[in-house]
Amino acid sequence: MSIFSNVLSEEQFLCSVCLDVFTEPVSIPCGHNFCKACISEYWNSSVLCQCPLCKDTFNRRPDLKTNTTLRDVADHFKRMKVSDREESSSKPGEVAQVRQMIQERLQKVKEIKLSVELSQRDAEREIAGSVEVFTALVRSIERSQAELIEVVEEKQKAAERQAEGLIEELEQEITELLRRGTELDYVHQNSPSPIKGWSEISVHRDLHVGTVRKALSQLEEMLHNEMEKLCNAELKMIRQWSVNVTLDPDTAHPKLIVSEDRKQVSYGDIRQNIPDNPKRFECYLSVLGKEGFSSGRFYFEVQVRGKIEWEVGVARESIIRKGPTAVSPEGGLWALYMNRNKYIAKDTPHMHLFLSQKPQKVGVFVDYEEGQISFYDVENRSHIYSFTGCTFTEKLYPFLNPCNNSEGPNTAPLVISPVNHTD
Fold first, then answer.
1. DSSP state letters, 14-77
2. Are 238 and 299 within 8 A, CB to CB?
3. H-helix or E-strand spanning residue 166
4. Rounded distance, CA 47 to CA 51, Å?
5. pTM > 0.90
């Protein structure tokens, strides 16, 4: 054991999560190693799938495969720790035999390490070649894009010329109709006519494509204003179904802090020593409302001001709370998610939304019988997204997730706001 210890220290075989010698070690894409049970439990209790050491984040949860070489060395290290305690009572021949076996194992480890280094260098060369190919492809795409833009601009100019020609023809036709109308006025001057004063109508020669564009811009602005009025009227109507939502601390994840009035929830970073119960979320940083709804309509508003990441919606009563929560309608969750001004409706599949303004307060409306859940930007009077065609068979509860600080300072609470019926 003493020879083994001179070459390799115990720290090289310790898992950084449990701080003990590796048990069934696995490697993750960033290169760090952990006990399979330790890294699985760490990811189960975290919103993000990331390395506990370097904080490298993975888009999807990696498949964990045992590092057999590291497992064999760690197991041998454990046995050597036991042998070290017994070495004082061993015979000299046995000690020599053990030392020789250690040397052989160390030589094997060195050979494996050399093989890995060679493979790594080969991989780096392949990556460098791939980068060159990718760079050439990007340049080709840029050239094609420039050519496409040129073609589009030419077609646009041709369309403008065609539009100007059509407008000129239209002017000539209108002038001819005016001339004929004036002649008809002399003929039918004593008969009532729905069209009067042809001579007062004039055709302006400055009518051109720019005028059409200006009209379209005005039409777009008018449409936006009408949509805002419509959404404002819609909000006024659905606010009549507002409910007094309070949060249920018995459902809150141990790292969440629920205010005394049960109207706010924030991330506390430290796992609280609180009783476990069947209702409490253990993996997902979530909390539910105290009251559930199994019929009719209900509406509530949540203030999200000051946060860089949050999730708000409704969840069914049977949503998974003790394991990985399925964040989709199939898993019993209908939610709107924001991460650094990127908005996602967690539908099936997830829908990426592009909002012109950042919501400070989100309204949530549920029509149980119609199977609809809608989200609104309350202060900007705009509709964000609607889940439609849903089928509800059990109670639905308001759902809040303030998220953690992995993306930066995010300690501001989610607040259940009182609904203003006078706006």
1. B-TTT-SB-SSEEE-TTS-EEEHHHHHHHHHT-SS-B-TTT--B-SSPPPP-B-HHHHHHHHHH
2. yes
3. helix 92-187
4. 12
5. no
**320 vs 21 pLDDT, higher one:** 320
Is the Cα torsion angle 103, 105, 109, 110 positive or negative in sign?
A: positive
User: DSSP string of 176-209?
Assistant: HHHHHHHHHHHHTTTS--SS--GGG----TT--H
- Quick one: which of 69, 41, 42 has its CA closest to 53? 42
At which residue do the structure tokens 């706010």 appear? 264
Terminus-to-terminus CA distance in the chain, angstroms? Answer: 78
Query: Which residue has tokens 């036709």?
Result: 173
pLDDT tens readout for residues 115-131? 777 777 777 777 777 67
**DSSP calls for 67-123:** -HHHHHHHHHHHHHHHHHHHGGGS-HHHHHHHHHHHHHHHHHHHHHHHHHHHHHHHH
Task: Give me the sign of the Cα torsion angle 383, 386, 392, 398.
Answer: negative
Residue 158 one-letter amino acid? A
Question: Reading across the β-sheet that carries 287-288, which strands appear in turn?
Answer: 287-288, 396-401, 309-316, 333-339, 342-345, 351-353
DSSP run (H or E) holding 372: strand 372-377
Q: Which residues contact 271 (CB under 8 A, 6 or more apart)?
A: 254, 255
Which residues have CB under 8 Å from 277's CB, separation 6+? 250
Residue 329: CB atoms within 10 Å: 18
- Environment class of 380 (CB within 10 Å of its CB; exposed 0-12, middle 13-18, buried 19+): middle
315 membership: H or E segment, kind and range: strand 309-316
Q: Quote the CA–CA distance of 391 and 370 in Å, as a whole number.
A: 8
User: pLDDT tens across 36-90, in order?
Assistant: 999 999 898 888 899 988 888 898 889 888 888 888 888 888 787 766 665 555 4
How far lies 395's CA from each of 271, 290, 348, 398, in Å?
29, 12, 21, 10
